[in-house]
Amino acid sequence: MNDDIIFEVPTPLGFCVRVSRGYWDLITTIKHPVMKGCEIDVQHTLRNPDEVRRSHSDPSVLLFYWLKRSGRWICAVAKRLNNNEGFLITAYPTDAIKEGERIWSK
């Protein structure tokens, strides 16, 4: 694994999602500072989601949802590049699952 990659985890859809240190820093300082220190939650969300939905705007973008506690989900958004790899676009807490085609659920 590249030293700049802070994690790469398999998803139940048969591909791995990775994120670099620099990109994780962008997510946790600019996009969603509330996610700072939540790497384990994001890895869990990708590895063991409750539901996965396809983005309306880009079919290669998938939204992974994990119900962390009642009424509070973690959403990890990833782009699938090919059959076995992808990268994290963003991650954030939410109180609702977005509309979109459900492609996987427990």
Kindly describe this structure.
The chain is an alpha+beta fold. Helices cover 19% and strands 45% of the residues. It has two helices and seven strands. Strands 1-2-6-5-4-3-7 form a seven-stranded mixed sheet. It is globular and about 35 Å long. The termini are far apart. The mean pLDDT is 95.
**What are the low-pLDDT stretches, counting only 5+ consecutive residues below 50?**
none
Indicate the structural class.
alpha+beta
DSSP summary: helix tally = 2
Cα-based radius of gyration, to the nearest Å: 13 Å
**Helical content, roughly?**
10-25%
Strand order of the largest sheet: 1-2-6-5-4-3-7
Order of helical and strand elements: EEHHEEEEE
Coarse morphology: globular
